[in-house]
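Budget justification aside, the reviewers requested a transparent look at the raw inputs and outputs of the sequence design task funded under Objective 1. We therefore reproduce one unedited record. The lines immediately below are the structure tokens for a 308-residue chain.
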């Protein structure tokens, strides 16, 4: 009887794999065993997996966005493609789980989520990229941590990361205080005009968490392109520039300083321009720390302004 009790206790102590999980409002079949060959199809998806301690199970990453990151390995994980991999490259990794940060990560046919599923490969799309998602981006991060923590048997790490997210957000709010929120124009890309984000983009709640206000928060859209004249009329306190491989912050800075209209903006004249890695402007595990870092920079700008 003692042996039976020991076996029962041992069985109860073993991790129990659920046969399904919820993602993007749908139920998906979970892998039969903990995933051991994971492919991350976007940099911020890989960052979340690395933070959870799933690095040993990562066999490939693709589509690195930030400038300065190596294109051969990412924290020891092979980079299998500069953009999204071809189907034969993806399947050559023999993955049991594929994770995307943007909906575009999953193509059609055998690289679609349903196609992967038919071939015995589980998939996960970060909740902030799901079709029709809510604007509660920080809750999406918590849900990603909870679901992936369960899938990967990393629940303690997931809970710790979720607590750290909330702690950083709380510190950011305390730094912001009751001061007037700085108006911030986010320059995503300058390739086809001055591309930014409106109310539906993550930049709006990220800036709000840092005690600032997205200049375009009243526009109920995700992507917004503004003219030079419109930006000049708004004259934001700060310009935030994404630093991406496809649109480096250094190139944006040159445009702002050399353009005859944009160079007259108060933020440009007074040097109140902030470069930030592109992936820091996406909802992921580091977003609490990003909000806190921005809150600290905005506070410093307020101090400088007050002393002048």
């Amino acid at each position: 009887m003692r042996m039976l009790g020991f076996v029962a206790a041992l069985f109860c102590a073993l991790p129990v794999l659920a046969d399904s999980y919820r993602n993007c409002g749908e139920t998906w079949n979970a892998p039969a065993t903990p995933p051991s060959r994971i492919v991350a199809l976007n940099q911020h998806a890989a960052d979340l997996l690395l933070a959870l301690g799933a690095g040993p199970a990562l066999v490939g990453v693709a589509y690195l966005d930030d400038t300065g990151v190596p294109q051969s390995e990412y924290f020891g994980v092979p980079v299998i493609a500069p953009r999204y991999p071809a189907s034969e490259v993806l399947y050559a990794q023999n993955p049991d789980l594929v994770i995307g940060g943007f909906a575009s990560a999953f193509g059609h046919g055998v690289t679609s989520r349903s196609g992967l599923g038919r071939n015995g490969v589980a998939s996960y799309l970060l909740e902030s990229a799901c079709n029709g998602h809510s604007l509660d981006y920080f809750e999406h991060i918590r849900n990603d941590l909870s679901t992936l923590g369960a899938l990967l048997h990393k629940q303690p790490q997931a809970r710790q990361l979720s607590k750290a997210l909330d702690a950083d957000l709380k510190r950011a709010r305390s730094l912001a205080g009751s001061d007037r929120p700085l108006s911030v124009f986010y320059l995503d890309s300058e390739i086809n005009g001055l591309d930014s984000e409106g109310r539906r983009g993550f930049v709006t709640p990220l800036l709000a968490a840092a005690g600032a206000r997205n200049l375009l928060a009243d526009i109920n859209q995700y992507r917004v392109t503004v003219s030079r004249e419109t930006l000049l009329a708004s004259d934001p306190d700060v310009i935030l520039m994404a630093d991406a491989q496809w649109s480096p912050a250094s190139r944006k800075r040159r445009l702002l300083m050399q353009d005859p209209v944009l160079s007259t903006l108060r933020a440009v004249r007074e040097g109140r321009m902030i470069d930030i890695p592109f992936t820091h402007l996406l909802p992921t595990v580091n977003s609490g720390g990003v909000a806190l870092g921005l809150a600290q920079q905005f506070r410093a700008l307020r101090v400088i302004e007050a002393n002048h």
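The two ends are 81 Å apart (CA to CA). The domain at 32-161 is CATH 3.40.50.1980 (Rossmann fold). Computational costs for records of this kind are itemized in the attached budget.
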